[in-house]
Amino acid sequence: MKNIALLCDSSADITKQEAEELDIHVIRMPITINGKEYIEEETIFDQDIIEALNKEEQVKTAQPVIGDIVKTWDHLLETYDEVFYLPLSKALSGTCHVAIGLAKQYNGRVTVVDSEYACYPIVKQLLAARAMFEKGYDCATVKKKLEEETNMFAILIPETLTALKNGGRISPAAAALAGLLKIQPLLKVDHGAIDLVDKVRTLKKAYKEGIRVVTEGINPEEYDWMIIDAYNRSMSDELKEMLEEATGQPVEQHVFKAVIMSHTGPGTIGFGRIKKLKY
């Protein structure tokens, strides 16, 4: 069996300790606060992001530098036969497109998934990839299965609209009006893109509607389920029970780390499902 390195970027919400324990390599992404650049999990950490967002400072993320991607691949190929890279969704970042182009220079030794994934589902799919490699699948076959036979769908419910407003994803006027009218948006993540799916009047209604939407019209047994929170574990614990009751399936809990939280803000809750692969 070939020795294949599993690689993602830090939009996968994976800490250095988790990456080491799971033997997954991570390209850490840049984050800027008021124009000053940091590297997630190296020179800036989750609590720093929370503090900056609470102060309504300008927090932005950027895709990994091309030179860092190439350097990482070259380093891994010194000890591995191949690299299998699952980046952030192509609908949310230019990294995927750039990496697919760069991989053509590596004579088949680097495989890049044409990704529609974000957050911890990236880690989940990399672990599935490893299981397939152990069964004898090659990188091209695993890439095809991830691109064609599975998908991720999630509902995101931000606790406030502050981060979305400061990041330019909604206008200050719209955020102010939503706050005045107590309008709570439900955002869906489908085919890797984020879009508005509904608006309700309270967070409590938003959570109930989020569970309804994410479980509607599918067989829960065909999916892996998870709930991800941006340092809102008490609510996550409560909603985990509700989601398990609605699906009849176990629900994993994870945390939104710095990169995703920079866009959605502290307190955000996400309900997610991933179509199970057959292999």
Automatic annotation (TrEMBL):
Mitochondrion as a keyword of this entry, yes or no, is no
What NCBIfam families does UniProt report for this protein, alphabetically? DegV
| PANTHER family recorded | DEGV DOMAIN-CONTAINING PROTEIN DR_1986-RELATED, FATTY ACID-BINDING PROTEIN TM_1468
Which keywords has UniProt assigned to this entry? Answer: Lipid-binding
Mind telling me what this protein is named?
A: DegV family protein
Record's keyword annotation contains Ligase: no
What the entry lists under Pfam families is as follows: DegV
- Taxonomic source organism: Amedibacillus hominis
Q: Which InterPro entries match?
A: DegV (IPR003797), DegV_C (IPR043168), DegV_domain_contain (IPR050270)
- Determine the domain of life of the protein's source: Bacteria
